[in-house]
Write a structure and sequence with these properties.
single chain, alpha/beta, Aspartate Aminotransferase, domain 1, Aspartate Aminotransferase, domain 2, 2 domains, 7-stranded mixed sheet, 3-stranded antiparallel sheet, 13 strands
């Protein structure tokens, strides 16, 4: 990328690590939902479920109020029991593991590939025991895990494969889209994700019985909702199991439907920005981009880099923030959080994750970024990394 005159960063806007776009069409869709008479459990819920499932190529969609709720619904749908083990990568957001704990399950942390931070299938194979009930494959930063290898490990043992695809709408693995790669695939619609419903999520599956179970689970375990009882002219319902209120309201589904029309363009924009980052970082010795496997298409929820050994990541982070650049870190290993340490987890369980996590840095990535924004980030990163190494 060519050199450009430096500008005073105090006069430049703050660049967050992620940012959602809201336009007039989104506002119009939300207002129409507000005026429709259905604020929740109405027609827009099923419309959004079908539209997003179709976009991903999946048969069934179950809308819920967060990606975490989608993961929890998946754990209930596979009938996880107390004491059952769930293998999870050590580098992920805590919800990937917490969802198993909600059902009394025991997270078992697998290590990650050092160059992609995806779950390491060799580590997974070593962690499988007779108690293993599920493998959670996290599509870290937007790149799919190695699902063929995971299914090969899981199928003969009766283990479920759950995709934490919260980073990955639009990603592709060996010609197959995220949302179709696991027994259940879970997505998030948080504001920094590819599309937003403010808060929200969805679980996709090809199994109609699993979908029905998750729809019941999101509604207190009740076998019908207000709209279905209204249309059938009945008042009776049955709570078949203990569930939760994980419903996603019509108003938020209306926003999701409006955003979905622009999702393909946003994925393409993220891929373009990642290409600019890759070109600009190619010659830097103190910073390296993560690897993308040749058989996969990356959706780039995040753009994560690894700092070279000897560079103080926290110093670089602080210097970038001081330059108005919203760097972030994704993630500290889950098993090293206080909650898990208090339950017997600790250092040494995932050596690669523990080592590489200290060198990770997330750079700004959102569709409205320009080439000038990328140049600004890389110039500041280069300067900060050089200074942090000297210090």
């Amino acid at each position: 990328m060519p050199d450009r005159p430096e500008q005073d960063n105090a006069t430049q806007p703050f660049l967050p690590y992620g940012k959602q776009e809201i336009c007039d069409a989104d506002v119009k869709a939300v207002v129409e939902a507000l005026c429709s008479g259905w604020l929740t459990t109405g027609p827009r819920v099923s419309e959004f479920e079908k539209a997003f499932a179709n976009w991903c190529g999946a048969k069934q969609g179950v809308a819920v109020n967060s990606g975490t709720a989608a993961l929890h619904a998946a754990m209930r749908a596979i009938q996880l029991k107390p004491g059952d083990e769930v293998i999870v990568p050590a580098i992920t957001f805590a919800a990937s593991a917490n969802a198993a704990v909600y059902e009394g399950g025991v997270p078992v942390f697998a290590d990650v590939e050092p160059d992609t931070l995806l779950i390491d299938t060799v580590s997974v194979a070593r962690k499988i025991t007779p108690k293993t009930r599920a493998i959670v494959a996290v599509d870290y930063a937007g790149q799919p895990a190695d699902y063929d290898a995971l299914h090969a490990l899981a199928k003969e043992r009766g283990i479920a494969v759950i995709a934490d695809a919260c980073h990955a709408p639009g990603a592709v693995y060996k010609g197959r889209k995220a949302g179709t790669l696991a027994d259940i695939s879970c997505f998030s619609f948080h504001p920094v994700k590819h599309l937003t419903t403010c808060e929200g999520g969805m679980a996709l599956t090809g199994n109609a019985d699993i979908a029905a179970h998750m729809r019941r689970f999101r509604n207190h375990g009740i076998d019908s909702d207000h709209r279905s009882r209204e249309s059938s002219g009945t008042h009776a319902y049955d709570m078949r199991e203990l569930g939760y209120n994980y419903r996603l309201p019509d108003v938020q589904c209306a926003l999701g439907l409006a955003q979905l029309a622009r999702l393909s363009g946003w994925v393409a924009a993220r891929q373009r920005i990642a290409g600019l980052y890759g070109q600009a970082l190619a010659g830097m010795t103190q910073v390296a981009s993560l690897k993308t496997h040749n058989d996969r298409t990356h959706a780039y929820h995040l753009y994560v880099v690894k700092l070279a050994e000897g560079i103080d990541r926290d110093q670089v982070f602080a210097k970038l923030r001081g330059e108005g650049i919203g760097a972030n870190v994704h993630y500290a290993p889950v098993h090293l959080h206080s909650f898990y340490r208090q339950r017997g987890y600790g250092p040494g369980m995932a050596p690669i994750a523990e080592s590489v996590s200290r060198r990770l840095l997330t750079l700004p990535m959102f569709p409205a970024m320009t080439s000038a924004d990328v140049h600004r980030v890389v110039a500041a990163l280069n300067k900060a990394a050089a200074q942090a190494k000297q210090d």
